[in-house]
Each structure stands twice: as C-alpha cells, then as structure tokens.
Amino acid sequence: MTKAGANPRLRSALDGIPVYKPGKPAASVDGAPAYKISSNENPYPPLPGVLEAASEAARSFNRYPDMACAGLVAELANRFGVPETHIATGTGSVGVAQQLLQATAGPGDEVIYAWRSFEAYPIITQISGARSVRTPLTSGEVHDLDAMADAVTERTRLIFVCNPNNPTGTVVRRAELERFLDRVPGDVLVVLDEAYREFIRDADVPDGTELYRDRPNVCVLRTFSKAYGLAGLRVGFAIAHEPVAAALRKTAVPFGVSQLAQDAAVASLRSEEALFERVEALVAERTRVVEALQAQGWTVPETQANFVWLRLGDRTVDFAAACERAGVIVRPFPGEGIRATIGERAANDLFLQAAEAFRKEL
Ligand SMILES: Cc1ncc(COP(=O)(O)O)c(C=O)c1O
C-alpha cells in the first residue's frame, strides 16, 4: 500500500523548470528517406580507428573507467599546449557547464547569458538556485556584449558567452570580446562555450584557448559531440586556470566519463586530419546551403557553426511541419525561428526544397 499524503520535499528551485527538448527522431513517411537535422549532430559515422578504440574499451566495461581521464587529459594538454592541471573533463560539455554552476553559483546569485542561446543555460542555472539574467541578442542575432557587461552586479557569479551562438550561428569577434573581458570584474567567471569552434572559418574570431592564458577568470568549454562526432558517448572538457579547473574536478560525477568515451576521444584526437576533412566538407555544405537560402530570398544570419537559423516568428511551427512532411526534422523555437543542422547532402537538399516551397507560398 502506498503511504498517502507524504510526498518527499523537493527543492522549490525546481518548480517550473523548462524541460530540455531533445531533437525529434526522424520518422520515415511511406518508406521515403527521413533525416534528423535538429540536434547539430555530425552526420558522419565514427572514423575506423575511433570505432576500434571504442570496441576495444567495450571489452572491459565490467570495470570502472579511469576516474582522472589521465590518458585523455594528457592528450588534450599536449594538443592545446596547456598544463594538465588546467583541464577538466565531464559528461559532455553540458555536464561540465553544470559542474561550473555547482562550483560558482547558488541562491541569491546571478548568471548572465544572451537570449536566445543554448537552451541548457536556463535549466542548469535554475537547478543551481541562482537567477538567470538574460540580455537580448542584437537585431543582427549577435551577443550584445556591452549590455552583458552592463548587467554585471555584485551578485553576478558566472557569464556564458556562446561563440558561435546556438541557435543563431553568429559570432563575437576578437576586439569586442577582449573589450568585454577587460570590463568584467576578475571575480566573475566568464565561460566561453566553444562547442562549435572547429566550424569557424572567420580568422577574426578568437580561440578561447588563447584568450584564457592570461585571464584566470576565463574558462573555455569544448566538446567531442559536434565536429568530432562522439555525441552519443558524452565527453566534453574545460580549459581553465586553477582554482577553477580544480573546482570542476571536485564537482564531477565520479567515473562519469566512460572508458569508451575516453578512448574514442583520444583516438579522435589522433585521427584529427581525417576528421577535419569531414569538417571541411560540412563547412563547404554550409556555404552551399546559406547561398541557396539567400537565393530563395531568405535572410540568413552569418553562421560559423554547423547549422543555420531562420527567424520565422509566428510561421515557425508551420515551417517545421512542412520540413517534416518533406522528410527532414528541423528544430523549431515556436514564435521565434528554426535551426537546421548542416547534415549529409541529401538531407540538406530536402531542407532546401522545403524552404523553397514554403517561401513561394508566403
Ligand atoms: C552551445 C552548446 N554548448 C554545449 C552543448 C552540449 O554539448 P555536449 O554536452 O554534447 O558536449 C551544446 C549542445 O548542443 C551546445 O549547443
């Protein structure tokens, strides 16, 4: 018998928390091909060496993984030319972002981020008990860094700068980012979320792993989920000075990053040349998709990520439904716009056809 009237007390901070919406799976209609371009995943399967490393690791998943991720940390330290103590790993970069909040913010504190941006920011901020302070993107869909610096108070503990921004693909460039970092007080942590860094082709967008070097309050977030194609294995990392990196190690879920993920990540770093050829092909597809959309008459913000953003306002849901009928699942943000990942060529073609047909009906 269940005990009536005695529900466990849950933290009120969780009330009304937005639920993270994963991209819908693609469902084929009448056997026609269907593609999911709603989660910014890499369309390519793992490279051969990566698959073998993961399969090998799978042989011993009766054992716990290396909790320190020592092999991966050493590889990353070498790759970025930073001390091993400056690297902290986690279950995807969203896991690391949550650790950052646990390490910095709680009730009464404030966390600043642009909006719209990565939808996990409000969720993990609310879970921490801190208050979200959102600064609207500019009319060009770009972070308004002056407004973000103006929003800092003595309660601010953390600021997310998503570069390129999810879902708009827009970037902030060197001069404005350095000016912003100079304005933020040294006791406020600035997190440069660079989940899509490898897709950037604009030389004026700074690499956070350079910017962080003489700034102890800057933390760079990177992931193996996007360009490296390991989204399903859940591994990301931060590069930051002590004591931030040490705090991340304290707040990590013990044994959170599986040995499969660690070994696949190391193998990916060692196969970077082949991997970056694929990234280059996606960047070329991005150019093709953007130019085709522009030729159809759409306004497309300049994207440096593996996705495009169309601001559709109240036509967003209809557009997403039209894409779904055409065999591609895009990501709608009702009332605002849609985000479409650059996928395999066939998926991009279906998306472009759907966009063209929709445009003609406007
Ligand atoms: C900006 C940004 N940061 C972080 C993440 C989290 O990725 P993961 O947890 O797979 O590393 C995403 C995923 O979509 C993202 O768009």
UniProtKB/TrEMBL annotation:
SUPFAM superfamilies: PLP-dependent transferases. Its cofactor is pyridoxal 5'-phosphate. Transmembrane segments: none annotated. GO terms for molecular function: histidinol-phosphate transaminase activity. Gene3D superfamilies: Aspartate Aminotransferase, domain 1, Type I PLP-dependent aspartate aminotransferase-like (Major domain). Residues 37-333 form the Aminotransferase class I/classII large domain. The keyword Ribosomal protein does not apply. Keywords: Aminotransferase, Pyridoxal phosphate, Transferase. It comes from the Bacteria. It is an enzyme of class 2 (transferase). It catalyses: an aromatic L-alpha-amino acid + 2-oxoglutarate = an aromatic oxo-acid + L-glutamate. The keyword Nucleotide-binding does not apply. The modification N6-(pyridoxal phosphate)lysine is found at residue 226. Its EC number is 2.6.1.57. InterPro entries: Aminotrans_II_pyridoxalP_BS, Aminotransferase_I/II_large, ArAT, HisP_aminotrans, HistidinolP_aminotransfase, PyrdxlP-dep_Trfase, PyrdxlP-dep_Trfase_major, PyrdxlP-dep_Trfase_small. Homodimer. Aminotransferase that catalyzes the conversion of aromatic amino acids and 2-oxoglutarate into corresponding aromatic oxo acids and L-glutamate. HAMAP family: HisC_aminotrans_2, Phe_aminotrans_2. PANTHER family: HISTIDINOL-PHOSPHATE AMINOTRANSFERASE (PTHR43643:SF3), HISTIDINOL-PHOSPHATE AMINOTRANSFERASE 2 (PTHR43643). This is Aromatic amino acid aminotransferase. It comes from Streptomyces humicola. The gene is hisC.
